[in-house]
Design brief:
This protein has a 3-stranded antiparallel β-sheet. Helix 9 packs parallel to helix 13. The chain is built from 14 helices and 3 strands. It has helices spanning 5-9, 17-30, 40-49, 52-67, 78-88, 131-136, 146-172, 178-184, 188-232, 248-256, 258-269, 274-293, 298-319, 321-347; strands spanning 71-72, 91-94, 101-105. Helix content is 66%, strand content 3%. With 349 residues, it is mainly α.
């Protein structure tokens, strides 16, 4: 009864390098470290199976023996085949009519019958001379080392990704394909779409900022208008209009005090004319509608930037006006006190 080299060493046909080593180490331990006491067939089996390529070739021969497979070996590999058969005791039978074609038998198997016609088992032919065929049929893994297997797996993965990406490219087109964007870079249309999205986001952000500035200006104007009316007794927008009568205390304060004149001038200058703010507000609203409808333009961003700068400058001017109004209030109180004193002196006998 034929005993395979795997059985002699005590490992399975799929054993790894480590398992082969451990099996021989077990024999070495059982023989108390005496290498000569290890059976010769075991030593020979280990010497042959320690090589991963030898194991892969041996498994192929055993499979061919088991299933009566026909294998093709190119002429340049006949010598290697002879050495393999010598080591494994497997007999190779050359086909009488087919060049480089062999059947294999273990010593305990009968010789092959070559002339059975259609009753022969299915023939498996492996042509080692065609690397492309071996790659397509995954035969490259059979005799490869672990490192080579990892490399082949990487190549197959790249090939699969390329096939799937190519299908996606063909279906979605150049502009919408993620694989195309990675492989050859984004298309001009994709670049333009990205630029439009970035411009839209920038315009939206500036539109929100401009809207906040207008609300802040409206709030400051309303508070300043109310405080001005309460302190001065006049409407802020009409305070310097011709024909409007100012309180006597205010006239005197303006005549006597340089600081009051400066504060009054700042207050008047801080007013924002209605046409000025309304025109800018209309521009912001129009740009907001353009963004909503997708008809915005690059110059809209520049318009918003200028309006924001204008609004920020107006805010800075208006921030100092409560101090000016407070100063005028103090000076008006002083003038009213002085007027009250003058009136009292004139009325006394």
């Amino acid at each position: 009864m034929y005993q395979t080299l795997f059985e002699r060493l005590g490992v399975t046909p799929e054993a790894s390098d480590q398992e082969v080593k451990e099996a021989f180490d077990g024999w070495f331990a059982r023989c108390n470290g005496d290498l000569d006491r290890i059976p010769c067939d075991v030593r020979d089996a280990h010497g042959f199976l320690a090589n991963a390529n030898n194991r892969a070739c041996y498994r192929e021969l055993l499979e061919a023996c088991e299933h009566d497979l026909v294998l093709i070996f190119p002429r340049e590999k006949h010598r290697s085949l002879g050495q393999l058969c010598d080591h494994t005791e497997i007999v190779a039978y050359r086909h009488p009519y087919r060049e480089n074609t062999f059947r294999f038998r273990r010593p305990d198997q009968p010789e092959p019958k070559w002339h059975q016609g259609t009753v022969e088992r299915p023939i498996v032919i492996r042509d080692d001379s065609s690397p492309l065929r071996r790659f397509v049929t995954f035969q490259v893994f059979r005799r490869a080392t672990p490192l080579q297997k990892a490399g082949f797996a990487f190549l197959y993965a790249i090939l699969i990704v390329a096939i799937i990406g190519g299908v996606e490219w063909a279906i979605k087109g150049r502009d919408n394909s993620r694989f195309a964007a990675v492989a050859v870079g984004p298309s001009p249309l994709a670049i333009e779409q990205a630029r439009r999205r970035a411009l839209e986001q920038s315009i939206l952000a500036k539109h929100q900022e401009a809207s906040k500035i207008f609300k802040s200006l409206d709030d400051r104007t309303a508070r300043l208008r109310s405080d001005f009316k309460q302190v001065v007794g006049l409407e802020w927008e009409l305070a310097d209009t011709s024909g409007v009568q100012k309180p006597r205390a205010l006239d005197l304060a303006l005549i006597r005090e340089q600081s009051v004149r400066e504060a009054w001038a700042d207050l008047i200058a801080s007013r924002i004319p209605s046409p000025e703010i309304d025109s800018r507000r209309q521009v912001v609203e129009a740009i907001g509608q353009a963004v909503a409808s997708g008809t915005f333009r690059a110059e809209d961003e520049d318009k918003l930037r200028k309006i924001i700068e204008w609004g920020q400058g107006r805010e800075q001017i208006m921030q100092s006006q409560p101090l000016n109004l407070e100063h005028i209030e103090v000076m008006l109180a002083a003038e009213e006190f002085r007027l009250a004193g003058d009136k009292k002196e004139r009325s006394s006998p």
